[in-house]
Design a protein that fits this description.
Elements (H helix, E strand, L loop, with lengths): L6 E5 L3 H13 L3 E5 L2 H11 L3 E5 L7 H11 L5 E5 L4 H9 L4 E4 L4 H20 L5 E4 L2 E4 L4 E4 L2 E4 L1 H13 L4 E2 L1 H8 L8 H15 L9 E4 L3 E4 L2
Parallel strand pairs: 1-2, 1-3, 3-4, 4-5
Antiparallel strand pairs: 6-7, 7-8, 8-9, 10-12, 11-12
Helix pairs in contact: 2-3, 4-8, 6-8
Bound molecules: calcium ion (CA).
Length: 232
């Protein structure tokens, strides 16, 4: 068996951050490449086939959202983790809707970021072990858990890795409330610590994809004091 190092592409213009991340990920055994502009990043993503992309939002030239959309035109599978000083919810939602899978806000700890990346890879391995092409149906929407594509009528949305994983957890216990802590444990594992707010943002993305009226959901319900529940 040959061990192939996983390649991480960092798209970030701040040299200090690139240096810090390169050191940390190299030390962890990853192969690291970096791009200092969005244009270069898009090109490198197409040529390198990285296993994961870490993407800054505020870049010279085309911004992180545009980079994300460009990459997603040809590639739904590579996890994209947004790294951004913009901690406002609208920016995060916009990033997720542009096709990112997860986000970490600056300032961040390297340990937290490494844990998130490990969790993404662990989850991908688990997903590969499961029987392939599992489709979840919710209302009029069909979600492919391998490609993260959600098809609702003639609209296809890239749900991304985490939103798909959260939906899978809810689907496995359809009809029952699932707490945010249970979702965190199942999807991120114990060594990553995203906040409950992170889950709420992914739920919002799921509702915008699946629900006719996301403000009054019929399928992904909030159970006050308990968490979320998926119903038919
Ligand atoms: Ca920047």
């Amino acid at each position: 068996m040959t061990l192939n190092k996983q390649t991480i592409l960092i798209i970030e213009d701040e040299a200090d951050i690139v240096l810090g991340l390169t050191d940390a990920f190299t030390f962890e055994g990853y192969n690291v490449e970096s791009a200092s502009t969005g244009e270069i990043g898009v090109k490198m993503a197409e040529e390198l086939f990285p296993d994961l992309i870490i993407l800054d939002l505020m870049l010279p030239g085309i911004n992180g959202y545009q980079v994300c959309k460009e990459i997603r035109k040809n590639d739904n599978g590579t996890p994209i983790l947004i790294l951004s000083a913009r901690s406002q919810e609208n920016d995060i939602i916009r990033g997720l809707e542009a096709g990112a899978d997860d986000y970490v806000t600056k300032p961040f700890s390297i340990g937290e970021l490494l844990a998130r990346v490990r969790a993404i890879f662990r989850r991908l391995m688990t997903a590969k072990d499961r029987s392939s092409s599992k489709i979840i149906t919710v209302g009029t929407c069909q979600i492919n858990l391998d490609t993260y594509a959600a098809i609702n009528g003639d609209i296809t949305t890239d749900l991304g890795f985490y939103a798909s994983a959260i939906l899978q957890v809810l689907d496995e216990r359809r009809g029952e409330p699932v707490s945010r802590d249970e979702i965190l444990d199942a999807v991120w594992g114990l060594d990553a610590n995203p906040t409950n707010r992170t889950i709420d943002n992914f739920i919002l993305k799921l509702r915008r994809t699946i629900e006719k009226n996301p403000a009054h959901p019929k399928y992904i319900l909030t159970v006050y004091g308990q968490g979320y529940k998926l119903i038919d």
